[in-house]
Amino acid sequence: MKNPVQQAASLLLEKLMMLLVHVRPFLAGSGGETTPPPPGDYDTSCFKRGDLLEVPRTLFIHFGIYLGENRVAHLMPDILPSFTDDLRQIQQVVTNKRLILGVIARTASVRVDTVENFAYGGSILVNHMDRLFEDQVLGSEEAARRAEKLMGTTAYSLLWNNCEHFVTYCRYGAPVSFQTDKFCETVKMIIRDQRSVLASVLVGLASIVCLGLAPSTTLPTIFIPFFLWMAG
Questions:
Q1: Do 166 and 209 belong to one domain?
Q2: How far apart are CA 92 and CA 114, in angstroms?
C-alpha cells in the first residue's frame, strides 16, 4: 500500500505539473490563445435559476451558479480586468495566459459565460453539494441574485476566495472551499513528516507560484524540514 506522504507528494506534483503545462504556451510566446470548447450536448432545460453547477476535472472541480437562459456566473482568475474596462475584450474566453497571470497577481473576475464555455466539454453535476449543507440552502432566486451582485473584478486567492468560495456563499450563505481544506491538510501532513524533505521543498515552491505567497514567508516553510532532517 502506498505511503500517505508519497500519495500527497504525488498529488502536489501533479498539480504543479498542471500549472507548468498551462504556463508553457506563455513562455513560448504562443500568444496564449485558447481553442473553442469542444461541443457539448447540454440540456439546459433541466437547470433552474440559482442551481449550483459543478464540473469535475482530473485534479480539481470548477463551480458556477446558473442564472437562466444558458448563462452561468463563475469566478475565474483573470489579469485582463486590471488593465482595461473594455467589456468586449474581458468577455472573451479566458486564455491560459490571462488565467495564470491572474493567479500570480491574485486578480479575478466573476463573469457570465454560456454553459458550453463554462463546462468546456466536461460533465455537469447539479446541486451536488446540497447534501453537505442540509438546511442551509438558500432560495434559488436569492442564490442567483447574490451571484449577480458580485459580478465584476475581485481579489483571487486559492485559500480564501476561489470559485468554490463564490458558489457556497451564493447558495449556502457562507464561503467554504472543501478543495482548499483538503489541500491544506495535505500540506500539513507533508511538512510534519521530517522525511519528506523533497516534498516540503515542492510544497513551498508551489505555494510561491500557485498561491501568490511572498517568498519571505514561504522560504522558511521550504527549509525548516530540511534543517530538522539534518539535525535528526
A1: no
A2: 11
Any domain includes 24: no
Let me know whether 59 and 168 are in one domain. yes
Cβ atoms 48, 67 nearer than 8 A = no
For residue 203 the three cell numbers come to: 510544497
Active site residue 163: yes
Catalytic hit among 46, 163, 184, 210: 163
CA 213 to chain centre: 16
AA letter at 104: I
Asked whether residue 65 falls in the same domain as residue 142, the answer is yes
Domain presence at residue 22: no
Regarding whether 170 and 102 lie in a shared domain, the answer is yes
E strand map for the chain:
52-56, 61-68, 71-77, 107-114, 125-126, 152-155
Q: What is the pLDDT of residues 83-119, one digit of tens each?
A: 988 888 888 888 888 988 998 899 999 999 999 999 9
pLDDT, tens digit, 9 for 90 and up, residues 138-176: 999 999 999 999 999 999 988 889 999 999 999 999 999
